[in-house]
Amino acid sequence: MRFEGQERRTVEELESELAERDRRIAELEKEAITDSLTGLYNRRGLEKAARIVMPEPNKEGRPEKRDAEQKTKNVAVLDLDIDGFKGINDRYGHLEGDRVIREAGEFLTRSMREYDVVARMGGDEFVVIMNGATERIINKFFDHDADPPRPRFGFTTEIGGEPRRISFSGGITLLQPGETIDNLTDMVGRADEALYESKEAGRDRVTLFKPSANGNIPADKA
To answer: How does strand 150-151 pair with strand 155-159?
Structure first.
């Protein structure tokens, strides 16, 4: 009887150890795809989340037909930098800079739809993957009464005891025909090119990557 009791306790201990191991593995997997400062996806997490909305390639490297039909709903990538962030960081220190980054992440999460993917790529750079990015959805980011059109979003925080508006410069591009999850890096690169056009044009604005600006933004269906 004593032996059976000892064996039972050993089995219970093994089950507990296995449960603890599985819990720890899950924690490590989450940490691997999460930005520690903001709690958003990091670069690796962005790539994993993108598979939900971007088609996988077939053996020829083209979008797998059924996958493309189910997933591709006008996917757009938005790349954003915080305007003037280096000056904030240099003047007020890294702790204040980190707080601004956290608030920016919270703001972007609130501003996007529940099924959009928001990630911090590092520094003050954020990337958003949007599914169903029709002309109406994209236009909501711009104030078309401004010249040139400017982003509608930004937020106010306190820095150095004074209120300060935090704005963004950004670039946006669309998934092109024939592209798959393997082209995510290309899409981020295109959006990044458009982002730097926004900076060159004076910041506080979002620029459409050239091909998208020439008629590739899908219109809403009535």
So the answer is: unpaired
Phi, psi angles (nearest 5°) of residue 160: 60, 30
> Alpha helices, DSSP H only, in 37-174?
43-50, 65-71, 85-92, 94-111, 135-139
Bridge partners (DSSP) of residue 208 are: 172
Q: State the Cα angle at 70 between 58 and 207, rounded to 5°.
A: 90
Nearest to residue 122, comparing CAs of 84, 79, 90, 91? 79
Contact 81/124 with Cβ under 8 angstroms? Answer: yes
* Residue in the block written with tokens 């620029």: 207
pLDDT at residue 53, as a whole number? 83
Reduce the DSSP state of residue 20 to 3 states and report it.
helix
In this structure, the number of other CB atoms found within 10 A of the CB of residue 1 comes to 5
Tell me the CATH number at 62: 3.30.70.270
Phi, psi (rounded to 5 degrees) for 185: -60, -40
117 strand-pairing partners: 129
pLDDT digits (tens, 9 = 90+) for 144-159: 566 665 666 789 999 9
Residue 207: the pLDDT is: 86
Domain containing 148: what range?
43-216
> 80 and 165: one domain?
yes
Specify the length of the chain in residues: 222
**pLDDT per residue as tens digits for the range 95-114:** 999 999 999 999 999 988 88
Token digits of residue 195: 């982002």
What's the token pair of residue 211?
A: 């091909």
